Amino acid sequence: GACRQGREGAGGVTGYGLVLVLRADPLGASFYRPSGNWSNRVQFLINVIEGAGAPLGPGVGARILRPSGSMSNPPSPSILGRVMIASRLAILHDIDPEWTERVLLPHFDWANPIEARGAWQGFLWSPWVRPSLWAKLKPFALQTPDHLAELGEHHEQFVPFMVSISVDGDGALSLDETRALLKKLAPSDLALAAYWLESRVSEAGTPGWKGIADWVVAVWPKELAVQSPAVSQHLAKLPALVPDRFPEIVDLVSELIGAIEHGDMVLGDLEKEELASLHPEKALILVDRITPDAPTPWFGNLKGTLQRIAAAGPELVGNPRYVPLLQISTKAGIWV
Q1: Taking every pair of C-alpha atoms in the chain, what is the biggest distance, in angstroms?
Q2: If you ran DSSP here, which 8-state letter would residue 225 be given?
Q3: Which of 3, 31, 157, 202 has the greatest count of CB atoms below 10 A from its CB?
Q4: Average pLDDT over residues 189-212
Q5: Quick check: 275 pLDDT over 70?
């Protein structure tokens, strides 16, 4: 689903997580069509949480759920009810941390895969935590990269959620823990992290770039195996997102990327910001890294980019990078 980073505060306490727009799915449908007495009480609890007017405070979970059942021994079928409650984990922890930690959080433990899958799927509808909740949820979150396949499409929210905590959580996820997380990700999942990073750099701009750059240097995997086209597509866009730091960002990402399919997304940004003219040598390095030996006809205006580089830096025409790229642009039949 589409996502943007969100941060909230209450009583001076900052939280971290993502605000998400999710595709419809069976679990989502069950949220709006609960069945059975227990699920009805779960829906009532959710209505209370969202402002229906019933009193809130410590003990609300136990008050709402008795006498029809409890989280520790609910009647069957109850897993959809637990999924619904897990979707309101952060708010429940604000209201009644003791009950949430004792009764609800154990369901996120992958020691019981069926329960954990439901709890995480519910939470990932709109994942958000305060530091006090994250301290309790973190051990189970660190288990989850080993179970991404069990989350189905909801793993698409888990990866950006964890990366956002690592980047913006002020040590909530250590560099060692982040490196271990990223190394466990398949290329398609690492692309989710790269997509979030692209969005975050766009938002942060020049003022926030240094902190993000330090994070990338410290944790991003450098193995050739992870330089997939999908990952490289997002990382290759970073230099043009912070134009006044273009040279140093090219130096950083050039070691992390390989050839991509949709070069137009990068070449177009270079043209828009006039970066091939302002920094022809660094632009040539970036273009060399992203251009495959046999690009598709829709790769982008490679020839035009090379012309701008040559006009701004005539000495580069004989560069070992420039000559092969010019030959590729001539032979490939790229649409311009």
Answers
A1: 81
A2: G
A3: 157
A4: 96
A5: yes
178 neighbors 190 (Cβ within 8 angstroms): no
**Can you read off the two tokens belonging to residue 267?**
């070449």
Q: How is residue 98 written in tokens?
A: 């003791």
CA angle 83, 38, 140 (to 5 degrees): 25
Percentage of the chain exceeding pLDDT 70 = 75
In this predicted structure, the answer to whether residue 2 has a pLDDT above a threshold of 50 is: no
Q: For residue 279, is it left (φ>0), alpha (ψ between -120 and 50) or beta?
A: beta
Please, what is the angle between helix 264-272 and helix 280-290, to 10°? Answer: 170
Amino acid, res. 134: W
Residue pointed to by tokens 């595709």: 23
Identify the residue whose tokens are 């970073």: 238
Neighbouring residues of 248: CB distance < 8 A, sequence distance ≥ 6 = 213
Q: What is the pLDDT of residue 256?
A: 96
The span from the CA of 66 to the CA of 129, in Å, is: 26
| Element (DSSP H or E) covering residue 192 | helix 187-219
pLDDT tens string 49-100: 444 444 445 554 544 444 334 444 443 345 677 788 898 899 999 989 999 9
Q: Are 329 and 296 in contact (CB under 8 A)?
A: no
* Tally of residues, the chain: 336
- What pTM was computed for the model? 0.80
Cα separations (Å) of 135 from 169, 172, 221? 12, 8, 26
* Residues near 50 by beta carbon (within 8 Å), at least 6 away in sequence: none
**Nearest Cα to 287, choosing from 269, 302, 274?**
302
57 is written with which tokens? 């405070």
Please give the pLDDT value at position 3.
Answer: 34
Instruction: State the pLDDT at residue 298.
Output: 87
> Is residue 26 classed exposed, middle or buried when 0-12, 13-18 and 19+ CB atoms within 10 A define those classes?
exposed
